[in-house]
Specification:
The chain is an alpha/beta fold and 336 residues long. It is built from 14 helices and 9 strands. Strands 1, 2, 3, 4, 7, 8 and 9 form a 7-stranded mixed beta sheet that branches. A two-stranded parallel sheet has the order 5-6. The longest helix has 26 residues, at 259-284. The structure holds 3-deoxy-alpha-D-manno-oct-2-ulopyranosonic acid.
Length: 336
């Protein structure tokens, strides 16, 4: 029997062979997908280290991880839109940035709500998050893979405690406090009693050294990693926000992965988040003496006064009006 192999059959056969070969052979470098991650964080920040040392090796079989630190790939606050437009694959995102697109995300950026790192994980993995995650995927094309622990944010000032002893929010009246640039951040700065100034993270050190701002708020590990202790004189341990980030991933890239690759990416993100959380907690619990040794006074203010004042600012606020019914109660119920 003479079989006429049409061109189409030949191509189909070659493609089938090609698929078989690619399934068998490891992907050549040029076959790997590229995962660029944009972050305002430094290369030595524990979230960055976790992504490079844990996430990258776990996905190396099919993906080439390419981090861009210190806002060099995309400026802080522009990463999510870049992913949405298909110009970026990953970022270390914040609830405050997501709240610019979906105001209800401000609930996860509200002062004195999350109690600790474990509470953040319980909330992120609870069904209450499903509508939030679905909305980001469906409307922004971004998949939130895991929650990262950034740490307890405190008020960090240029003035010494002798010049300005911070006991209650009233003591922050008129203080020019740098906060990140989104509305939710600015609201938190005001809720603390200060006068917030929007500014990108990469500009903060210079602004503190020149006196362009009086202070900033970040966790102790960031104060060390960014060397803010060189240009400030005190930290009032307000713990006003137990802060978090999300590992954000392009939905379009995700949908192009095989199910095995998707499982590997998810596991790699969870492993990196867990590793980074552990390292950040270790640093957070051990750096106070080092910072004091650098000439920065660290002390506890009237936490009851701060908690009550900050929470009162959110009640009846434009942000609270966007929170889905019952979610705050569920978050509180997942606390200690
Ligand atoms: C900051 O700008 O103060 C902040 O802490 C906000 C976080 O959401 C995150 O963007 C962080 O900066 C960067 O990762 C740098 O640590």
């Amino acid at each position: 029997m003479i079989t006429t192999i049409t061109r189409r059959t030949a191509i189909a056969s070659l493609m089938a062979l090609g698929v078989a070969a690619s399934a068998a052979a490891p992907l050549a470098a040029q076959d790997k997908i590229t995962l660029r991650l944009a972050t305002a964080g430094s290369e030595t920040d524990q979230r960055s280290v976790a992504m490079a040392e844990v996430f990258a090796p776990m996905v190396a079989g099919f993906a080439d991880y390419q981090p861009g630190y210190n806002g060099t790939l995309f400026a802080q606050g522009t990463e999510l839109e870049a992913i949405s437009r298909g110009n970026l694959e990953m970022s270390i995102a914040s609830a405050q940035e997501l709240a610019q697109f979906f105001p209800e995300f401000s609930i996860f950026a509200t002062g004195y709500v999350h109690q600790d790192a474990a509470h953040q994980v319980r909330v992120f993995n609870d069904p209450l998050m499903d509508p939030f995650k679905a909305k980001v995927e469906d409307e922004l094309g971004v998949k939130l893979l895991s929650v990262m622990y950034l740490g307890r944010r405190h008020v960090n000032l240029r003035q010494s405690r002798d010049e300005l002893d911070v006991q209650t929010p009233a003591d922050l009246a008129g203080v020019n406090l740098r906060m990140p640039g989104t509305d939710a951040w600015q609201f938190l700065g005001s809720a603390l009693g200060a006068s917030p100034t929007p500014m990108a993270f990469t500009e903060v050190y210079t602004a503190l050294s020149t006196g362009a701002v009086d202070g900033q708020d970040n966790p102790l590990p960031t104060v060390v990693d960014a060397k803010f202790y060189e240009v400030t004189k005190q930290i009032a341990l307000t713990s006003h926000l137990v802060d978090l980030n999300y590992i954000a991933f392009s939905k379009e890239v995700w949908e192009g992965l095989t199910s095995d690759q998707q499982l590997t990416v998810q596991r790699a993100a969870d492993a990196a988040a867990a590793y980074g959380r552990l390292k950040q907690l270790q640093k957070e619990n051990s750096l106070a003496d080092f910072i004091r040794g650098e000439g920065v006074e660290i002390y506890e203010p009237d936490l009851k006064a701060f908690r009550e004042h900050v929470q009162a600012q959110y009640v009846g606020s434009e942000f609270a009006a966007t929170w889905p019914e019952g979610v705050l109660e569920k978050i509180n119920a997942l606390g200690n």
